[in-house]
């Protein structure tokens, strides 16, 4: 037993120190996991539905609850979600709808495009309404679809089609909002240059439309104007769209907003929208945008983007944005750890979205302002411990980068030891304490001088408060040097030479520094 104890003794203090640091980091990361996304909002909670692939769901508000329709391979899954994130009325219907696309649904009836055919499913069989169809959009009371150069309307209930207008441009999309009979069409002229053309169609009544040009501009080959949306408020009209650009392998998404009045003769002017989080940091590349209108008829937006959830955690999360002058202020709404897509409101108090859980495998998650949901979301789960431990392990591995920097303060001490060994080998063999102290002084002195550069803005931004006090760049290395010396005194074996003890000290000191400050240096 004594022999075993002697073998273990040199590793006892390093092991205890590692256990303390690992536990402290994990507890800190658990606190991060338990952080609410914003004041008054719950953490993300799973919504009790089965998983599915990467598809585009359709959300439809009915009787104060959100009905969700998810097209799968050979069926459509549907369910109802309340603002308490409760799921009811789960069912499936054997129907194949290609995704991603918009489709119309009411009860067991569906209208969608498949193989360039416009299809009405009456609950029992599929009926073809039209051929050579490129796409469609709808709201509960209106279905607009298009061919290559022609727009059509479906008369709901009669299930016949009505032509609206033939156009010169090649049509790419149509866009409706949730209530209006109006819509936007988007097309492309390809000659002599690629030119995008967007038209607003205002409904005179159920059968006739007046069209107005809202956008007519050159579009580069690597650009795409898409995701159009509009809000009507009396004669005031606000239109939004997203510009995608692929340049040198980098993909960017930018949202533009334009305001005008119906019937106004002045040209439309679209301005780039700027999204800022609560710290004033600009959020870039908003995707999967969902537009809405609040109780004051003011616009609100849900979108997803990759950004910092906390000082140390980054993910593709859901943000809600509202206008404040010329900028849009955002608030974090989700706390899931992977990719979020297709967020939607559940009334005024809750939201839900698609959440990536595996390789192209998704489920739904949600968040709410309901007190009972907030309380439920604060319960620790296995996933919280898993994510906290994973974050700890990752941060400790980042400390290895810092350990590689130790060569800068090890090298002078090693060179001095080599010179002494060559010039005055007897002093080395006699283990002259002056040599030992000089080596240690070189090691620690160069370390403290060099390490000042590593205690930089990045370190003070990401390190916890107890490691960022005034003078920490001197105090922390000195304290850890003393701890390393104590570990050498405790764990040193009788047959160790002076050089062995110094090497043990250097390794321990670098190990301690890598654990404590290494994760925050780079």
Would you write up a description of this structure?
- The mean pLDDT is 90.
- Helices cover 29% and strands 38% of the residues.
- The protein has helices at residues 2-33, 371-377, 382-405, 407-423, 425-429, 433-451, 457-462, 472-491, 498-516; strands at residues 45-46, 58-62, 65-71, 76-81, 87-93, 104-106, 109-114, 117-121, 126-130, 135-139, 142-146, 150-155, 160-166, 170-175, 183-189, 195-203, 209-218, 223-233, 236-247, 250-261, 270-272, 274-276, 287-293, 299-308, 314-324, 327-332, 340-346, 350-358, 361-368.
- The strands form seven sheets. A five-stranded mixed beta sheet has the order 22-26-25-24-23, with no helix packed on it.
- The chain has 522 residues and is an alpha+beta fold.
- The protein is elongated, with a radius of gyration of 32 Å.
- Helix 1 (2-33) runs parallel beside helix 9 (498-516), helix 4 (407-423) packs antiparallel against helix 6 (433-451) and helix 8 (472-491) crosses helix 9.
- The chain crosses the membrane at residues 400-423, 435-455, 467-490, 502-521.
């Amino acid at each position: 037993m004594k022999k075993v104890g002697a073998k273990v003794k040199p590793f006892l203090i390093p092991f205890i120190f590692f256990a303390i640091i690992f536990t402290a980091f994990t507890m800190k990361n658990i606190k991060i996991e338990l952080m609410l996304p914003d004041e008054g909002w719950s953490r993300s909670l799973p919504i009790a539905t089965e998983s599915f692939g990467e598809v585009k769901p359709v959300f439809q508000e009915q009787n104060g609850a959100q009905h969700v329709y998810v097209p799968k391979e050979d069926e459509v899954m549907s369910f109802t979600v309340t603002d308490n994130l409760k799921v009811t009325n789960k069912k499936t219907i054997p129907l194949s709808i290609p995704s991603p696309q918009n489709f119309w649904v009411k009860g067991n009836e569906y209208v969608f495009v498949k193989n360039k055919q416009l299809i009405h499913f009456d609950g029992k069989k599929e009926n073809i309404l039209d051929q050579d169809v490129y796409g469609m959009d709808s709201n509960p009371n209106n279905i607009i679809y298009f061919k290559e150069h022609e727009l059509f309307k479906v008369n709901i209930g009669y299930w016949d089609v009505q032509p609206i207008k033939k156009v010169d441009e090649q049509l790419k999309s149509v866009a409706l909002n949730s209530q209006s009979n109006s819509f936007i069409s988007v097309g492309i002229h390809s000659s002599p240059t690629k030119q995008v053309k967007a038209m607003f169609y205002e409904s005179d009544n159920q059968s006739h439309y007046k069209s107005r040009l809202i956008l007519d501009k050159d579009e580069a080959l690597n650009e795409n104007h898409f995701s159009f949306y509009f809000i009507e408020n009396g004669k005031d009209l606000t239109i939004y769209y997203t510009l995608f650009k692929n340049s040198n392998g980098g993909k960017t998404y930018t949202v533009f907003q334009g305001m005008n009045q119906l019937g106004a003769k002045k040209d439309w002017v679209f301005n780039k929208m700027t999204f800022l989080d609560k710290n004033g940091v600009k959020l870039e590349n908003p995707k999967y945008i969902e537009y809405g209108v609040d109780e004051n008829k003011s616009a609100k937006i849900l979108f997803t983007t990759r950004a910092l959830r906390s000082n140390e955690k980054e993910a593709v999360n859901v943000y809600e944005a509202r206008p404040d002058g010329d900028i849009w202020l955002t608030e974090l709404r989700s706390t899931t750890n992977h990719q979020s897509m297709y967020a939607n409101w559940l009334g005024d108090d809750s939201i839900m979205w698609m959440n990536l859980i595996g390789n192209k495998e998704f489920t739904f998650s949600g968040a709410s302002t309901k007190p009972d949901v907030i309380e439920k979301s604060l319960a620790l789960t296995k996933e919280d411990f898993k994510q906290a431990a994973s974050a700890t392990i990752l941060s400790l591995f980042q400390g290895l980068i810092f350990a590689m920097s130790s060569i800068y303060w090890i090298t002078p001490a090693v060179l001095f030891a080599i010179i002494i060994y060559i010039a005055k080998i007897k002093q080395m063999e006699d283990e002259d304490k002056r040599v030992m102290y000089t080596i240690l002084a070189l090691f620690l002195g160069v370390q403290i001088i060099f390490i000042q550069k590593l205690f930089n803005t990045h370190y003070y931004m990401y390190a916890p408060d107890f490691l960022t006090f005034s003078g920490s760049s001197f105090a922390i290395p000195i304290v850890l040097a003393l701890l390393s010396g104590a570990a050498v005194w405790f764990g040193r074996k009788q047959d160790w030479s002076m050089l062995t003890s110094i090497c043990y000290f250097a390794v321990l000191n670098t190990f301690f520094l890598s654990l404590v400050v290494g994760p925050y240096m780079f």
